[in-house]
Design goal:
Strand content: 5-15%
Strand order of the largest sheet: 3-4-5-6
Radius of gyration: 26 Å
Number of helices: 20
Number of strands: 12
Length: 433
Amino acid sequence: MKRLLEAELIYGRLLPIEEPHLIERYNKALDGFGIRRTALSRFRIDMTGFSPEIADELGDRDYLDPNRVNRRFIVMTPEQVNLPVVHTSFSNTAALMHEFFEANARAINAITIRDALYGEIEDSVSVVDDIDDLLSINEVRFRVLSAEDMLGKAGELRSLVDRLTTVPNAWADDAMLNRMVELAKQTGDIRQNALVPDQLVFRHEAYWANHFGGVYVFLDEKTTTVICDPAAPGFRRSRPWQVSYIALDDHRRIFDFLASTKRLELPRASWVEPSGLYQHRAEMTIAGLVNRTDPTVDLDRADRIWLQTWMHRNAGLVAEEGTYPFLQEAMRTVAATGEIKITEVAPERRFLIVRAAPDHPDQWLVNRLLSQMVPHDFVSRFVFDKQGFYAAYEQFSEKFRAYVVATLTRTYLQDKAAFRRKLFGIREDNPNA
């Protein structure tokens, strides 16, 4: 992972925590979770407060996600809203955290001046044993505490203020007045500063969960659709009257579901030609084939002429694998007719020539699923499915790893938003990208 770290392709854009008072607040939050304090004098955190350095120190990647449900969080500063989420069991953790930050901006801004917030994103289940447990999660509640007990002190001060204004002669209680002054020195004027979060309950929308090898859950008005390995416990048995189940290797049904629910943008010249997506995937395919035949090749030094020569010499392999000639024919068809008739394309190849509908709220989740169906395209996998990318990266040869890092640095990292907009039509940024 050293190359990924140096290129900031893993754990990039994290916030350094190095001031002693902030480290102490973080440690008090760890105390609240019953986790051993950190001895580090500097570490970095993501949007949820997860630190890769503390995870290494504890020897536990899941120290803020102990049962891979009811995710814990530590908020040190409002600036965390602009950070990615680098370790999570649910694809919508970043979206939920964003909703929490946005709905409670005033309280978070006020509290984090003197304190840190911590707690759990509580689901309706405490452990996930089967698919039914995942389907039970309809909404989440943020249970919020504060490291220096600022929330508790603000609540106490509020009750004393109420007593002062409602109880006759309460102003004569010197002990109460002295306590109010003491609390006000710590919390400030609670009439001006909102120290209590306004909204703590949020809906749990469509998502991917990393349980049972990965589960996709899509929500429509009258039905829920689950896509995963059919060996997952509860597959086709949990809520069969409400849930439609599709096996992850059933390409035809997956495609038909995504297309019929208007989650896909079908191949049309209007977006295919300006996006360059087919050409991009063709190049990814050849790079993968070169690496498969000779993992020692330095692909980063291979120019277009070298690649053309390689394809001529390995024409049989290219034709047998079939992806590259299919994409070339797809480009010619789109240029000549303006579209491709999906019914004439084999189900397993259809994912190569579509992308998620940019206007659908599930576009990131759909693109994640599509990237899993197009394994040669490691760039798309990195953009939409970092867990899958990192797992695949571990299996690459050293030479191919160098090529992958160089390609991502040269393309995606140059301008992430522009890259996503051009290839995938995404016009809004994503908090976890």
